[in-house]
Amino acid sequence: MPPEATAAAREAAELTVVDALAQLLDADEDALGPGTALAAIEDWDSVNALRVLVHLERTLGAPLDYERFAAAETVGDIAAVVAAVSGTAP
């Protein structure tokens, strides 16, 4: 995959995650980026993490790697899990 396509795919995965966080947790989309710590997001807890996981799996139509998702510390970490499932991981 050309670098431009890889960058676009990563960005698409990040946008998918940001959209889910904004929709489910009422988080400000403009304040979220790949480096945003999940612990810094108001209302981020284990219950809401599962809500986000299920939402992303339904959106993608495929299961995510739960261990990688649970180990995620940033928005970018979750985007990497999404990219791996959607076949857009570098």
Question: What are the key terms here?
Answer:
Non-ribosomal Peptide Synthetase Peptidyl Carrier Protein, Chain A, Carrier domain-containing protein, 90 residues, PP-bd_ACP, 4 helices, ACP-like_sf, mainly alpha
Q: Could you say which overall geometry the principal axes of the C-alpha atoms support?
A: globular
Radius of gyration: 12 Å
Separation of the first and last Cα atoms = 8 Å
Please indicate the count of domains: 1
Number of strands: 0
**Average predicted confidence as pLDDT:** 91
By CATH, the superfamily comes out as ACP-like
* SSE succession: HHHH
Portion of residues in beta strands equals under 5%
Report the major sheet: none
Class inferred from helices and paired strands: mainly alpha
InterPro entries: ACP-like_sf, PP-bd_ACP
Protein name: Carrier domain-containing protein
Domain Carrier: 8-86
Organism: Streptomyces bungoensis
